[in-house]
Amino acid sequence: MEIIFLGTSGYGITATRNLPSILIDKCILVDCGEGCLNSLYKYNCEVQALKAIFISHVHPDHILGLITLLSKIGNYNKDSSIKKYPPIYVPKGMKIHLERIIEATYSNFLNRNFRIKIIELELNQDNYLEITINNKLYHIKWVKTMHSPICYAFNFNDEVIISGDTAPFLDFNEFIKNIPILVHEATFSDEDFELAHKLNHSTPSDVAKIANDNGIKQVYLYHVPDIDENEEKGFVSTAKTIFPNLFVAHDGDRIIFPPNVDGQ
C-alpha cells in the first residue's frame, strides 16, 4: 500500500502545506482540502485514476477542494453524455450538507448528466465496506471520532488508519490496536493541550500515548499547525520520548507498506 500526503496543514494553506488530503494507492482519496488538485499534478498523480473518495467530515478545510477536483474529472469525460465520477463516501447524515455546498456553488454535479454518487456510511458499522479497484480488494472500516460535526476515522485493509479530526477518546484504542501505520491529526502543540481538547483536537503527545499503548509501528502527524522545519523538532520533542517512531508528515511525502527489500 502506498500513501501520498497531498495536504497536511491544519492551519489553512501555507507556503509549504495545502489542506488535508491523503491518497492511497493513487486511486483512493481521503478528504479533499483546498489545493488537492494542484498537489495531484505536483506529485504526478493522475486525476482520472481516482476511483473512490472518502470524506472524514464536512468542515471546509476537508472538502473545499472537491468542486475544482470534480470539475477537472468531468473534463476527462467531455465526450460522454453521462459524466462518470468516483463515488464519495461521507458520514451518516452528511450527504445533504455536501449536496447543499455543491448547489451553493452553482455546480452541476447533481443534475442528470453530471450525477455524482454520494454514499452515507452508517454510524453503527455491522460489516466493513468492500470495494475492488484495479483488481485489488480493499476492506474499509470506520469509527466515529470525538469531533463536531460528525467525523469518521478510516481503516484501510488493517494496514493504515487515518484519524480525521479528533480529540483522544477511549473507543479509538480498540479501533487502532496493532495497526502498522497511524496517520493522526495534531492540530495543537503540547503546550496548548487544554485548548486542543476543548476544540476536539489532539497534540503530538496525545498521539504518541495512543500509539505506545496500542502496538502501532509508525505514526505520521498531519493536520498540523503552521510550523517550519526548525520548529518541528520542538513540536514533537516530548512526543518522541513517548513513542520514537513518530514523524511529522509533509506535503509530497510517500509511505510504502510493507517496505520493499531495500527498506524504502
TrEMBL record:
Name under which the protein is recorded: MBL fold metallo-hydrolase
Superkingdom classification of source: Archaea
Coiled-coil region: none
GO molecular function: 3'-tRNA processing endoribonuclease activity
Pfam families in alphabetical order: Anti-Pycsar_Apyc1 (PF23023)
Source organism of the structure: Promethearchaeum syntrophicum
PANTHER family, sorted: ZINC PHOSPHODIESTERASE ELAC PROTEIN 1
